[in-house]
Amino acid sequence: MKMLIVEDEFASSAMLEFFLEPFGQVDIAVSGANAIDLLQKSFSENDRYMLLCIDIGLPDINGQDLLEKLRKFESESGISIQERSIVFMTTAQGDPKNVSKAFYNQCDEYILKPVRKSELIRLFIKYNFLTELANSIPSPEN
What we know:
Elements: E1 2-6, H1 10-20, E2 25-29, H2 32-44, E3 51-54, H3 63-76, E4 86-91, H4 96-104, E5 109-112, H5 117-126, H6 129-136
């Protein structure tokens, strides 16, 4: 499973990477511009991210705006709602305005920092990521 963490704070990105790494490939973008570059590359190579964890308070582009750009790009690329990337907003900003804007921009989950491993596992179960990972493991030869 291919995942992208968009986070400018090293401690937060390192913790998320530690939690997510056992489940697949994890890339890290430290800015919105860096994330856009990685997303465009993944689309052009037809190797899109299955999961994105996006912080709202990025140094160059707001995470909300990045989410909006992602959903617009997916739509313009003909990607259906069922096939689009799952997006977890991972942020310290829990005010109602940010929460409602994130869901308006079609995030899938809104997680307040510090992110707990148990919360990520619960969401992996909810979105069938663990089932997909289990099904991708080859059967042992007899």
